[in-house]
């Protein structure tokens, strides 16, 4: 399940959160974002229990969008323990995102072990 997030919950849920958090910055008026939403839901199902996924409406949360320096929609940012691990701008396919997320999680896990 992908939960909605805004300026007020971002710090608590993501920056101060534990584990992995994926945050998608989306625009309701964007066709690429409309196509990306089902991919995001599928990723949330696939990584359930490993990554908490959130979506932010860039129109409703402009200060958060600016704070995170989001330049395009959709943008998906993966955080680990509140730190940005990877950022993807554009409507990637679910398969491409799966691979990139799994690779980032492996790399982050290796970095924590050293």
From TrEMBL:
CDD domains the record matches: TRX_family
Example of a GO cellular component annotation carried by this entry: cytoplasm
InterPro entries: Thioredoxin-like_sf, Thioredoxin_domain
UniProt domain Thioredoxin: residue ranges: 1-106
UniProt GO molecular function: protein-disulfide reductase activity
Pfam families in alphabetical order: Thioredoxin
Name of the featured protein: Thioredoxin domain-containing protein
């Amino acid at each position: 399940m992908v939960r909605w997030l805004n300026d007020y919950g971002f710090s608590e849920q993501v920056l101060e959160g534990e584990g992995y958090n994926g945050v998608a910055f989306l625009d309701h008026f964007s066709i690429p974002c409309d196509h990306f939403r089902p991919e995001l839901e599928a990723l949330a199902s696939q990584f359930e229990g490993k990554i908490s996924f959130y979506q932010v409406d860039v129109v409703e949360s402009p200060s958060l969008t600016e704070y995170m320096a989001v330049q395009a929609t959709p943008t998906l940012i993966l955080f680990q323990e509140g730190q940005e691990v990877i950022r993807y701008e554009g409507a990637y396919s679910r398969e491409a995102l799966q691979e990139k997320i799994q690779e980032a999680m492996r790399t982050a896990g290796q970095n924590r072990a050293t």
